[in-house]
Design a protein that fits this description.
Length: 188
């Protein structure tokens, strides 16, 4: 059902839904879902849609390696929240055969490693740039991608260990106010 919905709502250029500031969120999430659908059922309509979706994401990668909000500005500013979805979508697609996306994934992971701090936290647009109340969210997002053993080379061992320590600290102190996606509210 969701596969049909995604195919129906993809534009000719590969974009999902309308073009607006948050289009990159839609694009990353929908492309990731489509790549996972292709993993389970390799049919031609999904392959073609995934090909267009991957091309759309790759074409919108910022010069620094991340991704940012869609805007009328020629050079959007990369941020971790949007970049994560694009990286995960491209990673999944690359695993399914879209090898042309691997360089974009690597550039994205290098950018993401650059927003990690020595204390194991992650910034929003650069190291140390953590909006109020978003530390848990950004740390979880960065750790999800960069602690994958496949990507061990993107971070020095001491920084990887600091990120692990931050994640252990967060896991040991959950509370009723734990909200791993509060950054969305902080920046909308």
């Amino acid at each position: 059902l969701f596969r049909s919905y995604l195919l129906l709502h993809q534009q000719a250029d590969g974009r999902f839904g309308d073009l607006f500031s948050d289009t990159a969120y839609n694009q990353g999430i929908a492309t990731l879902a489509l790549a996972r659908a292709y993993r389970t059922r390799k049919d031609e309509p999904v392959r073609l849609a995934l090909d267009r979706a991957v091309s759309f994401i790759c074409a919108r990668q910022c010069a620094d390696g991340g991704w940012g909000y869609q805007s009328s500005e020629p050079h959007p500013v990369s941020n971790l929240s949007i970049s994560l979805w694009q990286i995960e979508a491209l990673r999944c697609a690359a695993e399914e055969g879209w090898t042309q996306a691997r360089p974009n994934v690597e550039r994205g992971l290098r950018w993401m490693a650059g927003v990690a701090s020595d204390d194991g936290s992650f910034g929003y647009q650069r190291s140390g740039d953590t909006p109020p109340g978003a530390s848990q969210t950004l740390t979880a997002m960065g750790a999800m991608s960069l602690l994958d053993p496949v990507h061990a080379g993107f971070l020095p061992p001491a920084r990887r260990q600091a990120i692990r320590a931050q994640m252990q600290k967060l896991a040991a102190t959950p509370g009723p106010d734990m909200d791993y996606y509060q950054i969305g509210r902080a920046h909308v």
